[in-house]
Design goal:
Number of strands: 9
Low-confidence stretches: none
Mean pLDDT: 92
Strand content: 25-35%
Radius of gyration: 16 Å
Helix content: 10-25%
Structural class: mainly beta
Largest sheet: 9 strands, antiparallel
């Protein structure tokens, strides 16, 4: 018999820990996006850890900017960024306030509101692909920069909330190099900070960093 996922919101203390403790512990948790059209719930299956000033792959490696300011704020808040001039990606802020660490939400299984997610992910060939990758996840949940700074731990009504769900046993968690990260930040021997649920069909494929070619 499969246990019903725990719908209790995760407390802020969950996120007020080192990012490498939080990241694998987020697998199996449930993210709920409340929209005017209805809710969408997603079970997290893949994440990546980014550790601020100590991590060359992090947006905060060179300090605070207008773009990454939320990463320095209280834990349990949402950091949303725009990438490649096309896509949004979503993170959850970790650690003590002032230390910019966050977990990128890379993939998940839509467990409620799939019909609504499908309207935003028309190119998905099946429901396993609805949130298979960080940009797809944000698109399926209708997440953009307007949600940057949202408190996902508050007891009040909020457009994004993270619930306890069903934590994944340690023997089902895998880790390796982060996807598409250049230099030392993408070196799996130094930063094997991508975590995923073994054999889960919603996990995105690993891709090494490929330098973007400048237009002539």
């Amino acid at each position: 018999m499969i246990a019903t996922p725990d719908r209790t919101p995760l407390p802020r203390e969950f996120f007020d820990r080192p990012v490498l403790d939080v990241a694998p512990d987020l697998l199996g948790r449930i993210l709920v996006r409340t929209t005017p059209d209805g809710p969408i719930a997603l079970r997290l299956t893949e994440v990546e850890a980014y550790d601020g000033a100590d991590d060359p792959g992090s947006h905060a490696y060179r300090g605070r900017t207008a773009r990454n300011g939320v990463m320095f704020g209280p834990p349990g808040h949402v950091y949303v960024y725009f990438t490649y001039g096309m896509w949004f990606c979503m993170n959850l802020v970790c650690g003590p306030e002032g230390k910019a660490s966050a977990v990128l939400l890379r993939a998940g299984e839509i467990i409620e509101g799939a019909e609504l997610a499908r309207t935003r992910r028309l190119s998905a060939r099946n429901d396993k692909e609805l949130a298979k990758g960080p940009a797809r996840l944000a698109t399926a949940l209708d997440v953009d920069r307007s949600l940057d700074g949202t408190d996902a731990c508050t007891s009040a009504a909020t457009p994004l909330k993270i619930l306890t769900g069903t934590p994944v046993p340690h023997d089902q968690v895998r880790n390796g190099p982060r996807t598409g990260v250049a230099g030392d930040g993408g070196n799996g021997d130094i930063h094997p900070w991508r975590f995923w649920i073994a054999n889960d069909p919603t996990v995105s494929p690993y891709r090494a960093h490929v330098p973007r070619r400048r237009r002539s």
